[in-house]
């Protein structure tokens, strides 16, 4: 082998070693980056889970354990007790509050879909210059603070004879849920090509039939977003629930639990935390089941309008 060949082979080996070193460096960087991402995700999850963990532990703590500032709030320094959870179910109408919340939430979700779907479909399909401004105007209604509206809405509730009834909340809550739902659904419906409906109508379907059979399945993620948003907003709303219902058997969780477990300067902390955990776990479970569709519904509705 000539000197030139030896030099070439040496250069090739040097280049190969350099490439291998670069690959190892990039691989280490990739692993470090992934570990950093997962570490940050785990840390964020732990930070978000700490309030729930504190509530779960506090619900089973004895009074002398909870009110001792020297004790660790995240562990049982005294033996755990179910007395406060039992008190929630036996000495307060908690199950009635839960039932009222589920009933009002379900009715509001149905009413929201009945009103928002036709409105969003009309605004998305109308070829008018005022279609988009009207959609924005509908959304701006949601930004009006409830504290400015409940006085006028109280007159409506009284005129309908619905004071101190669950129907008062069923009538009032759509004023909050419908505007945002229309906004979300407009964005999703605009993402559906008109050709889909036109082809269905050519095949013999009516406008309504084409909407139900072709458009509705395509906007299902948006519908899921509307359902989750409407129910969670209804379950957590406080101002209207407090203003329109004062009778304890007709209260929902957001007003009934504080009313029953906060008496003057006496706070039943363990029972309050137990109610928080009991309400949060089912909602979080259902939310996680539809998380992908919920996020898709919000992002699509936000960027397609």
UniProtKB/TrEMBL annotation:
<feature type="transmembrane region" description="Helical">
    <location>
        <begin position="136"/>
        <end position="160"/>
    </location>
</feature>
<feature type="transmembrane region" description="Helical">
    <location>
        <begin position="31"/>
        <end position="54"/>
    </location>
</feature>
<keyword id="KW-1133">Transmembrane helix</keyword>
<keyword id="KW-0472">Membrane</keyword>
<feature type="transmembrane region" description="Helical">
    <location>
        <begin position="210"/>
        <end position="233"/>
    </location>
</feature>
<feature type="transmembrane region" description="Helical">
    <location>
        <begin position="166"/>
        <end position="189"/>
    </location>
</feature>
<feature type="transmembrane region" description="Helical">
    <location>
        <begin position="102"/>
        <end position="124"/>
    </location>
</feature>
<dbReference type="InterPro" id="IPR050901">
    <property type="entry name" value="BP-dep_ABC_trans_perm"/>
</dbReference>
<dbReference type="Pfam" id="PF00528">
    <property type="entry name" value="BPD_transp_1"/>
</dbReference>
<keyword id="KW-0813">Transport</keyword>
<comment type="similarity">
    <text>Belongs to the binding-protein-dependent transport system permease family.</text>
</comment>
<protein>
    <submittedName>
        <fullName>Carbohydrate ABC transporter permease</fullName>
    </submittedName>
</protein>
<keyword id="KW-0812">Transmembrane</keyword>
<feature type="domain" description="ABC transmembrane type-1">
    <location>
        <begin position="98"/>
        <end position="290"/>
    </location>
</feature>
<keyword id="KW-1003">Cell membrane</keyword>
<dbReference type="InterPro" id="IPR000515">
    <property type="entry name" value="MetI-like"/>
</dbReference>
<dbReference type="GO" id="GO:0055085">
    <property type="term" value="P:transmembrane transport"/>
</dbReference>
<dbReference type="GO" id="GO:0005886">
    <property type="term" value="C:plasma membrane"/>
</dbReference>
<dbReference type="InterPro" id="IPR035906">
    <property type="entry name" value="MetI-like_sf"/>
</dbReference>
<feature type="transmembrane region" description="Helical">
    <location>
        <begin position="267"/>
        <end position="291"/>
    </location>
</feature>
């Amino acid at each position: 082998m000539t000197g030139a060949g030896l030099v070439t082979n040496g250069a090739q080996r040097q280049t190969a070693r350099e490439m291998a070193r670069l690959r190892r460096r990039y691989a280490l960087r990739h692993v470090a980056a992934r570990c950093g991402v997962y570490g940050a995700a785990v840390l964020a999850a732990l930070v978000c889970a700490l309030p729930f963990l504190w509530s779960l532990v506090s619900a089973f703590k004895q009074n002398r354990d909870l009110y001792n500032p020297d004790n660790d709030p995240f562990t049982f320094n005294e033996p755990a007790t179910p007395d406060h959870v039992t008190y929630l179910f036996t000495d307060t109408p908690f199950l009635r509050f839960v039932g009222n919340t589920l009933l009002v939430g379900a009715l509001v979700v149905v009413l929201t879909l009945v009103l928002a779907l036709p409105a969003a479909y009309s605004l998305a399909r109308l070829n008018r210059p005022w279609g988009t401004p009207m959609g924005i105007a509908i959304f701006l209604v949601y930004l009006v603070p409830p504290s400015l509206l409940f006085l006028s809405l109280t007159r409506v509730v009284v005129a309908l004879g619905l004071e101190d009834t669950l129907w008062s909340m069923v009538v009032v809550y759509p004023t909050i849920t419908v505007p945002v739902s229309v906004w979300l659904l407009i964005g999703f419906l605009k993402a559906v090509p008109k050709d889909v409906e036109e082809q269905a109508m050519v095949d013999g379907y009516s406008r309504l039939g084409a909407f139900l059979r072709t458009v509705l399945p395509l906007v299902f993620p948006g519908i899921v977003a509307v359902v989750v948003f409407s129910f969670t907003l209804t379950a957590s709303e406080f101002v209207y629930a407090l203003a329109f219902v004062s009778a304890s058997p007709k209260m929902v969780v957001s007003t009934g639990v504080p009313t029953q477990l906060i008496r003057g300067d006496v706070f039943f902390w363990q029972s309050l935390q137990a109610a928080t955990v009991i309400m949060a776990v089912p909602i979080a479970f259902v939310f996680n089941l539809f998380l992908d569709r919920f996020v898709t519904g919000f992002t699509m509705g936000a960027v397609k309008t």
